[in-house]
Specification:
Blueprint (H helix, E strand, L loop, with lengths): L6 H7 L10 E4 L21 E7 L10 H18 L4 E3 L3 E4 L2 E13 L2 E11 L8 H4 L5 H5 L5 H22 L3 H9 L7 E6 L2 E10 L5 E5 L4 E4 L3 E4 L7
Helix pairs in contact: 2-5
The structure holds biotin.
The site of biotin has 20 residues, from helix 1, strand 2, strand 5 and strand 6.
Length: 243
């Protein structure tokens, strides 16, 4: 569609009979693009990719957040394939190019009793955006800004879906992230770096050692013990400026 409020919202509201797993909603512009933690996602017309994929996976709700990491890795692979660029991932699912954010992913889920009803994986990828607000230009970038030319949106979209499908098949067999864990860790910007973990009422520092097969960030604390971080907020110091 040309314009919508939010592709994630549309994907969540799509009539049940139409919400076949694998359905993809793509818009040229969003008036109420949603970001993580209640933020908005600036979604200017025409230039960027705004899409939401509907899935109805046959596993428990606790496993669903792994799909976000799976999508992040698939987008990184697709950009490497199409543009020969090395993307880095900021755990769990921000994609960085030259230390600036180029893509964000927001996964939302509905429940049907105790089972997953629908999982919607929303991807916002800055493709041909030229101008960012002053505040945003310090922390965000687009493919066009980095490769220096207009980039074909449809080709990138097709490659993302191709990579995701391949990875999703492996994920469903393994029922965890072990098939992509090593590849993900190779491009993880946090790996070997000091991170600051902010949890409810708790803050500590440690060294991030990469994800395990469940997608949890392994953080070695100053006393040598290792914590597996799943839902905590992680910020990285001294690497780039947007945290
Ligand atoms: C983030 O905060 O990093 C996540 C941003 C996710 C934005 C995408 S754009 C397409 C989809 N529809 C939305 O409303 N949000 C996601």
């Amino acid at each position: 569609m040309k314009e919508t409020d939010s592709t994630n919202r549309q994907a969540m509201m799509l009539e049940e009979a139409l919400a076949v797993p694998g359905t993809l909603i793509v818009a040229g512009q969003q008036s109420q693009g949603r970001g993580r933690r209640g933020r908005t996602w600036e979604s200017s017309p025409g230039t960027n990719l705004y899409m939401s994929l509907i899935l109805k996976p046959d596993f428990s709700a606790e496993q669903a957040p792994m799909l976000t990491l799976l999508m992040a890795y698939s987008v990184a692979q697709a950009l490497k394939e199409c543009e020969q660029i090395e993307i880095q991932i900021k755990w769990p699912n921000d994609l960085l190019l030259n230390k600036k954010k180029i893509c964000g992913i927001l996964t939302e889920m509905s429940m049907d009793g105790s089972e997953i009803g629908r999982v919607v994986i929303g991807v916002g990828l800055n493709i041909n955006e030229e101008s960012f607000s002053e505040a945003l230009s310090k922390i965000a970038t687009s493919l066009k800004r980095e490769v220096g030319r207009e980039v074909e949106k449809a080709q990138i979209l097709a490659e993302i879906m191709y990579k995701f499908e391949e990875n999703y098949k492996e994920f469903c067999k393994a029922k965890d992230l072990s098939p992509i864990m090593d590849g993900y860790n190779q491009i993880l910007v946090n790996k070997g770096k000091e991170v600051c973990i902010l949890e409810l009422g708790n803050e500590y520092h440690g060294i991030a050692h990469g994800i395990n097969y469940k997608g949890e960030l392994q953080v070695e604390k100053e006393d040598g013990t290792v914590e597996s971080i799943f839902a905590g907020e992680v910020s990285v110091r001294g690497i780039y400026g947007y945290v």
